Structure formats: structure tokens, C-alpha cells
């Protein structure tokens, strides 16, 4: 009765429709700019991650990483219906004691593209990346941001070559011309400069000045198969790593390698999965030894690389693969080595217990490295999702809290690393209880 009388009174005074219109306007503003009102001032203070020889250092202490991949963060932040997934995933990661997330800072052409065409950016998507970084900062999570894809997903080097071809300046239609075409190199440098100097609209901090960013990754899984000698890719890495450092000397930089040994490496026959791995145009040691590269990256996918080995054989290879690269970090590179992707497919005859055994092996190698102050500095599960993201799964993804045994292994690793080198301030709230003695 009171509500009905109030409506009649407002309508009678000619106020009802203006109020409805104003409310609709406010709703529009919230949907368009609502995250501007989110309180990002509660973020945890973070220091830049530094490197001292084979170790990462944070606030004077060695830093060994229990991390994960959620490549989809920027893409989902660009849509207000899926944006809440970013906070859910980052909060869940923090509660597991995880400290670094690896994600894409690129989407070249196509749906929700950050870079629509060379040098042209979608501000809405850039604000989505701003939101990812601000939300990570608020949850005490650092980010490895990858700058381009070797693969076609989210544009990648294929899109750059297509742009150059469409503009009539391409030297070749080969995807590998991404690495040697002068016009494409200029496209990529322009992109890199724009991203590194971007000022986050939510925090007011330029990306190159934000310690939330753990490191830049030049390219996800680079391969240049048209030049198996590796010279073309090496030249590109030298030029682009030098260019990044000319703009940003505060952040660490890695290449984004899978870890294969090239044709001139003595380990090409003893440590590579098979002979094809030496002919991809990359070389783990040669590509990583450059002074402008701060740490090396390796991926671990034994069931993807082998088609005729059983699980026990693949597990044995993966352990040997990891130890080989840690040895390289200690003896050849004298730099940290991060296993930035590892996973076991859930296709075919998948058994959850096997994935847990594989996960346990990877985490144990990192834990032993941390105990011995060696170069094996961390691992990143590929990949973590949240609920209702089935169509983004690629046979390796999991929702970690839906698998109690896997979740337990992950949190136990956070505790074990914390006991070796101490809890980070960002971990204290979440780990102080279940990492207590006797738990």
C-alpha cells in the first residue's frame, strides 16, 4: 500500500519517469565503468622480484615459486558477464599459497582483440588487462605476462604476417617471416612499447613500474622451423630482448622456450624427447644465455611428445628432462630455470591418480632444488580454470578445488617451499594455519 501510494505521488508530480531514466543511466554507467569504483587501494604492497645468480630474490630472501597458468584472464575481463572469474581464480590461487600466475598480455585480431591492427588498440580490452593486473595486486599475486604467441591462438605470429601481407609490405607469407621481416619487427616493437608504457587506469601505475608484474615473456613457445640452425630465432631474441630492456630495466625477462636442445647442443641426442626436437629452430642454452635474458623457461609435456611410451617411461623421462635443465641453469647459464608449463592430458586412458603422480614428481623436483639452493626455481601447472569454463579446457585444465587430492598436493608444496625459505607477507594470511606444524 505504501509503495503504491508513493508511485502515484511521484507520477502525479511528473517525477516517476525522470527517476526511472536516471536509474537506467546509473545502471549503464556501472556496466560500462563500474570497476572504476572498485577499491583497489587495499592491495598488498609488493616488491620487485630480482635475480641473484641462480635464484630469484624478494626483499632479500630467496624466492621459489609454486605457480599456475590461467591464460584467459584478460579475455574474460573484457566481458562484464565473465569478469568475476578473474577475482575468483586469483583469490583461489592466493588461498592455495600460490604466488605467480602466467597469463596472456596479447590478443591480436579477432574477438576481444587487444591489438585490432598494427598500432591500433581496443581501449576496452586494455582496461580489461588493467583490471587483471590491479586484481592480482589486490590479492598479492604476481604475473608473468606473455607478449605474443608462436601458435595461431589469439592471433600469434600468423596474424602479424597476415597484416604485413595485407598492407603489401610482407617479404613472405611464411609464418616464420615474423622473426625476420623488418616491417613485422617494427609492428611487434610498437606493440611492446605500447604495452610496457601503458598506465593502468585503476592503479595509476605504468606497467613498466608495477612490481605486480613478475616478468615479461617475449613469446609463447617460439619455433622457427624454416631455419633449424637456430640463427634466425637467435637474432630475433637478441634484438627484442635488448629492445624490452631499453624500455624497462626493472622487470625480469624470459624468452618463453619449451626447452628443446638445438642441433649444435651436445644434449640434443641424450636429453631431447626425440630427434625432431633438435630441428625446431630453438636451442635452450643458446637462446637463454644472453645477458638480456634473466631466466630460462621450460615446458614439460611427456604425453604430448611421446606416442609410444607407457606412463612409467614418460614419468622417468620428465624427471630426467627437469634435472637436465636445472643442471644447465647451475652450470651453463648461472640463471634460474622456471618450468612455466607442465601438464598431463586427460584424454584416452587418463587416470586421475597418474596425474597426481606426475604432479607430485614435478613439485618434488622443485622442492629438492629449493632445499639445495639450486636453479630449479619453480613450476606452473597448465592450466587452472574456474567452474563453467568447460569450452576453454584443452584436455590439460582442471578446476583445482574440485579435485581434493590434487588440491592437497598443491597446497602442501606451498607449505614445503615456505618452510625452506620462509613465508612471503602475501602468504601469511592463507598459509599460517594449514602450514602449522602437525597439519
Automatic annotation (TrEMBL):
It is found in: Secreted. This is mannan endo-1,4-beta-mannosidase. One of its GO terms (cellular component) is extracellular region. The keyword Transmembrane helix applies. InterPro entries: GH, Glyco_hydro_5, MAN-like. Belongs to the glycosyl hydrolase 5 (cellulase A) family. It holds the Pfam family GH5_mannosidase. Residues 47-384 form the Glycoside hydrolase family domain. It catalyses: Random hydrolysis of (1->4)-beta-D-mannosidic linkages in mannans, galactomannans and glucomannans. It is an enzyme of class 3 (hydrolase). It comes from the Eukaryota. One of its GO terms (molecular function) is mannan endo-1,4-beta-mannosidase activity. Keywords: Glycosidase, Hydrolase, Membrane, Secreted, Signal, Transmembrane, Transmembrane helix. Its EC number is 3.2.1.78. One of its GO terms (biological process) is polysaccharide catabolic process. The lineage of its organism: Eukaryota, Viridiplantae, Streptophyta, Embryophyta, Tracheophyta. The keyword Secreted applies. The chain crosses the membrane at residues 15-38.
